[in-house]
Amino acid sequence: MIFETASLSPTEVYRLLVGGITPRPIAWISTLSKDGVANIAPYSFFSVASCNPPILWYSQVNPQSGQDKDTLRNLIDTQECVVHIADTKLLEKLNLSCASLAAEQSEFEYAEIASCPSYSVQPLSVQDSLVRYECRLREILKFSTLPSGGKVALLDVQAIYVDDRVWNGTMIDQEKLNSLGKMGGDFYSLTRDLRKLSRPQV
Fold it and tell me: What general EC class does the enzyme of this chain belong to (predicted)?
């Protein structure tokens, strides 16, 4: 079956994109509002943009209201965030932080997420996250201001926290990290079954 995107509604396009582009890594992003409210929310349109310099990116799909989400507004106002990698033990709290709360209400408090100070930025860190990237906003790319349109934030990585339990002395132990992925609909993927293959030598 072929779907021509020009003849589809934004909702239909969204379902075809998120249902097929799976699993997607999840950026659980904490920010601080200009009024000092600690915000955190997950985004599954996310990856690495560059390693030299180290840059991450995440995309906001614009809400139907047309207003930016708290994360992007806070990033614009205060320029800093922490990108957390969540493991399966944090799934329930991560999912709770999806709730559409008022801007003056903290998802840390709502979802009872244990926090701690960050190393180089002001937003709080999730205490139980095994890997986190402390970032400053580099640039925002606006592709569309329409509902379901996209805005991409490029984030300069300032510092990286790796819990000793998942650091093997050379790299992050993938079997111990057990990071979450996002599937289509309400489904998440759990990285319990890993297969290791060496790259071919030509």
Answer: oxidoreductase
